[in-house]
Design brief:
The protein is an alpha/beta fold. The protein has 10 helices and 8 strands. It has one domain: 3-Layer(aba) Sandwich (Rossmann fold). β5 and β6 form a beta hairpin. The structure holds adenosine-5'-diphosphate and zinc ion. Zinc ion (ZN) binds next to loops.
Length: 204
């Protein structure tokens, strides 16, 4: 199975991707995670990508496409999370493989700024949480590790990520609708309810 998870920053792609990958045994391929790993390790790609990621801009298509192609070379069941993000990237995917289903996490944009600026990530186990769930606690509820804020989850960078989404990524909804692959899911609900809908769609 080859799945694409679409949605604005903060729609919950990462959270759902982890659940989908466990339930349906597909490799979770997040370009955001791959890029952050390269940035952390200061690889050649990481050095190039950092200036874009820090500003909330998209990393150039050719870099991301090459990264994904290399990553999925020997994998035939996967879930793309945060990729493709431009029409150019979607066309590149169509050139090297056939996607089965595209799940669009549909959410009211007014919820996104709050979701993203309040997001915290555990530095040890990578669990994701939100300040409204922490009641002032500063430790990870899963492992007790230290909670961090992603460098690009500040208000200015989130604003630019949301603009980029509207201009460059939202057109993919139409692109995949035309291919009859798009399924819309209301992502403004609790993660467990969102997942139930996704599960029933992928079971078909
Ligand atoms: P979010 O979807 O919450 O914005 P991600 O972790 O998916 O977060 O992406 C973080 C950043 O990584 C993006 O703002 C962008 O700079 C870069 N990035 C991730 N995926 C892509 C992609 N497919 N094409 C270009 N840049 C990307
Ligand atoms: Zn943790």
């Amino acid at each position: 199975m080859k799945i694409v998870l679409l949605g604005a920053p903060g729609a919950g792609k990462g959270t759902q991707a982890v659940k989908i990958s466990a339930r349906f045994n597909v490799a979770h391929i997040s370009t955001g995670d791959l890029l952050r790993k390269n940035i952390k390790e200061s690889t050649e790609l990481g050095k190039k990508a950092k200036e874009y990621v820090d500003k909330g801009l998209l990393v150039p298509d050719e870099l991301v496409i090459a990264l994904v192609r290399e990553t999925v070379k020997e994998i035939d069941s996967f879930l793309f999370d945060g990729f493709p993000r431009t029409i150019e990237q979607a066309k590149a995917v169509d050139d090297f493989t056939e996607i089965d289903k595209v799940i669009n996490l549909d959410i009211n944009e007014s919820l996104l700024m709050e979701r993203l600026t309040g997001r915290r990530v555990c530095g040890d186990c990578a669990a994701v949480t939100h300040i409204t769930l922490l009641n002032g606690a500063d430790k990870c509820g899963v492992c007790g590790g230290r909670l961090l804020q992603r460098a690009d989850d500040n208000q200015a960078t989130v604003k630019s990520r949301l603009d980029v989404y509207v201009k460059q990524t939202a057109p993919l909804i139409e692109y995949y609708k035309k291919q009859n692959k798009l399924v819309n899911i209301d992502a403004g609900r609790e993660a467990a309810d969102v997942f139930k809908d996704i599960e029933s769609i992928l079971k078909q």
